[in-house]
Write a structure and sequence with these properties.
The structure is a single chain. The chain has 35 helices and seven strands. It is an alpha/beta fold. Among the domains are: about 1-135, no CATH class; about 440-570, Response regulator (Rossmann fold); about 625-705, no CATH class. The strands form two sheets. A five-stranded parallel beta sheet has the order 4-3-5-6-7. The protein has a two-stranded antiparallel sheet with strand order 1-2. β3 (about 440-445), α24 and β4 form a beta-alpha-beta unit. The longest helix has 19 residues, at about 115-135. It is globular.
């Protein structure tokens, strides 16, 4: 029985790793398949005769005969016996039992015998899959974990051995059982078994260090100590109140900051990190790029360091910056530890955290803290660094879109009543975000106009609206105006200014600081382009794309260097809608220290975006400038616009006139009369809208008769 147990679990371990490899194994050279056995010479080999004459009453008898004949070099004689075995239609328990009996190596051997045809490969795969499924069966694993507390030493030892052979599923099940167990004796037995699972239990145990359950954390640290896990040394020292704990944690954080890797990576430079959920008492793992994995691990170290130094504001700041960034990378709700630290932080601490997050390029942390500052409702944080701008105002110039928007949203929520350092950035930010829509956009700069327009057209066919440019300065200006910008394609030979100045300008502006750039070049200039690209972040050097396939490859490479999760068109549209609403709210006030009039062109342009027309009309009505009234009457007079939108804008024009009077020139007023008079042959709805515009103008006619001319054809 013991031999069978050992064979089974060795087989399972190999089955998990090798099951999918069967289809790729080369066939063993053999006699041609299907050779008629009746034409063979009479068998004289006693060993072969014995294998053929072996009684076959159970599946293992058939399989033993097949293997014996294969080993004796007579696979053609094994084929009919294998066919009989397959015809028995074994269930999964019987298939797994065969792997237990003979070992996975023998099934791998069988799958390679070409003479036996595909039937051998299919049978081997089915048996090994059944063995793997049985090894990972949750009910079986639960039984093995329960056997760890059996009064029989033999049963306990067998359970430990079987769990170790079952791999990762057994590790997860055992650790989750440890967390659920409340009986100290049973818990101790499970913990002892976990030590035997080393090294496969190390990474999940490191993930469980995040638990807030003191008893579970004590057990996890005790197990890691017994395993002598180097990465856990700072946590082990901290748990034992060792004098070396702070030094070990500080050194570990320092190594992380210097770029020294804590984990080995796979071929894609990613790492699997484990996470523990105290609520569900479940483990899970996720693969991260190595830089993100390093940040998540550094956050765990920093939190432990902050626990040891609760009065050290720098330690608390470090824990918040790294912890909030790590929470953002992991996703899901914020961790309880970060909630606790965040709620305990005062305004000065939040300012410190926001500044540090932007300085060290942790945008997820910066976004969270900016939002927290807005939720606190304390506008004094905007004046804390006078005469210099506070971090929240500085965030309006940060390259990351979400950070800028969170800062803008926070400032609007704080609603300062007097100007503050950096206040001039608010109107610019409002104008920038108001230009966003659910449209993918790019800027294309090529030295020849035909090249630029052709490439822009090809991008349009892929759903990306592109603005062509032939000068570097044009490209930089166009890129800075669009909140929908997803990429910039610029040729290395562009001039006015040259490519180096263009790259510098794009990387220096908040709106384009993190926008990916495709640096295009001819084959002869590609090496130069690659050297330039290596000097900047998110820049890809690529040959000028001559085919659709090449253009698609370029876009794929650009996506690869974009932000981890760039803003979607829908998210950009939501930001634009919010910015237009905020503009409207600020414009509705009798007095504001923001200079919002320069954003009028942005608001006017939004009129022609269906999802923003109502918001834009409201803002223009409040703006009260000649240009805003001109934009309203022109839109309402435009026959290609849906009639409901034109009616809404006509009402907005009436509101503007009521608030600010008529700001149109005499020529513009006359043009409206002409439009109405020319509408005699148009539909009634159009005539009604044009008539309502003239009704608005006529409503205060008595106040300005001297500068108005009323055509006889119009009768109010």
């Amino acid at each position: 029985m013991a031999r069978h147990l050992i064979s089974f679990f060795v087989a399972v371990a190999l089955a998990v790793q090798c099951g999918s490899v069967l289809a790729q194994l080369p066939a063993r050279p053999s006699a041609a398949a299907g050779a008629p056995t009746e034409q063979l010479a009479p068998e004289t080999n006693p060993a072969v005769l014995a294998a053929l004459e072996l009684p076959r009453t159970e599946p293992k008898h058939y399989f033993s005969a097949v293997l014996s004949l294969v080993d004796l070099g007579r696979p053609e004689l094994a084929a009919p016996i294998l066919k009989e075995l397959v015809g028995l239609n074994l269930d999964q328990e019987q298939e797994a039992a065969l792997v237990n009996e003979f070992g996975s190596r023998r099934f791998l051997q069988l799958a390679r015998v070409a003479t036996l045809g595909p039937a051998a490969r299919q049978f081997a795969e089915a048996c090994m899959d059944a063995a793997a499924a049985r090894a990972h069966d949750p009910r079986r694993l639960a039984k093995l974990i329960d056997d760890l507390n059996s009064p029989s030493a033999t049963t306990r030892n067998a359970a430990r051995f079987d769990l170790a052979a079952a791999g990762e599923p057994a590790v997860v099940a055992t650790l989750e059982a440890l967390a659920r167990e409340t009986d100290p004796q049973r818990r101790s037995a499970i913990a002892a078994a976990v030590v035997a699972l080393d090294p496969s239990a190390v990474d999940p145990l490191l993930g469980m260090l995040s638990t807030t359950d003191p008893a579970l954390r004590h057990d996890v640290i005790r197990i890691l100590k017994a395993m002598h896990v180097t990465l856990a040394r700072p946590f082990i020292a901290a748990a034992s109140s060792s004098a070396d704990a702070e030094r070990l944690l500080d050194e570990a954080i320092g190594r992380n900051k210097r770029g020294m890797r804590s984990f080995a990576t796979d071929e894609n430079d990613t790492v699997a990190l484990w996470h523990w959920d105290d609520d569900t008492k479940k483990l899970s793992s996720t693969r991260y790029p190595i830089d993100e994995a390093q940040t998540i691990w550094a956050a765990r170290l920093a939190l432990e360091y902050a626990r040891l130094r609760p009065s050290d504001r720098l330690a608390q700041c470090q824990a918040l910056v790294l912890g909030l960034e790590a929470d953002g990378l992991v996703g899901g709700p914020r961790s309880p530890e970060m909630d606790k630290l965040l709620s305990a932080a005062d305004g000065d601490m939040l300012n410190m955290v926001l500044g540090a997050a932007m300085k060290h390029d942790f945008p997820l942390a910066a976004t969270t803290v900016a939002a927290a500052l807005g939720q606190r409702g304390d506008a004094s944080t905007l004046y804390a660094f006078t005469p210099s701008p506070a971090p929240l105002a500085d965030a309006l110039d940060y390259p990351n879109r979400r950070v800028r928007f969170a800062a803008l949203q926070a400032i609007v929520a704080l609603d300062p009543q007097v100007s503050f350092p950096g206040a001039s950035r608010v109107p610019e930010a409002l104008g920038y975000f108001a230009t966003g829509a659910s449209q993918r956009r790019a800027v294309v700069a090529m030295p020849v106009a035909d090249q630029a327009t052709t490439l822009a057209g090809r991008l349009s066919s892929l759903g990306i609206e592109a603005d062509p440019a032939t000068r570097g300065g044009q490209a930089v200006a166009a890129a800075g105006r669009s909140a929908d910008l997803e990429m910039v394609l610029v040729d290395i030979d562009v001039d006015r200014p040259g490519i180096r100045d263009v790259l510098y300008a794009l990387r220096s502006e908040p709106a384009t600081g993190q926008v990916p750039i495709g640096l295009l070049a001819t084959k002869s200039r590609l090496d130069t382009a690659q050297r330039l690209a290596s000097q900047h972040e998110r820049v890809v050097a690529f040959p000028r794309p001559q085919s659709d396939a090449a253009l698609n490859e370029l876009i794929t490479r650009i996506k690869a260097v974009s932000d981890r999760e760039p803003a979607t068109p829908q998210e950009r549209a939501e930001m634009a809608g919010a910015a237009l609403d905020w503009l409207g709210q600020l414009l509705a006030r009798d007095h504001t220290f923001y200079d919002l009039r320069r954003q009028a062109p942005v608001v006017e342009a939004a009129l022609y975006l269906p999802e923003f027309a109502a918001r834009s009309a409201n803002a223009l009505a409040l703006l009260g400038t000649p240009a805003s009234q001109r934009a309203l009457v022109n839109f309402a007079s435009h026959r290609s616009v849906p009639i409901e939108a034109r009616r809404a804008v006509a009402r907005a024009f009436a509101e503007s006139v009521e608030r600010h009077g008529i700001l149109l020139t005499s020529d513009e007023i006359l043009r409206q009369y002409d439009r109405y008079n020319a509408s005699a042959a148009l539909d009634a709805d159009t005539q009604a809208v044009l008539g309502s515009l003239l009704d608005t103008l006529e409503s205060i006619r008595a106040q300005a008769d001297a500068r108005r001319v009323q055509p006889a054809a119009y009768r109010p």
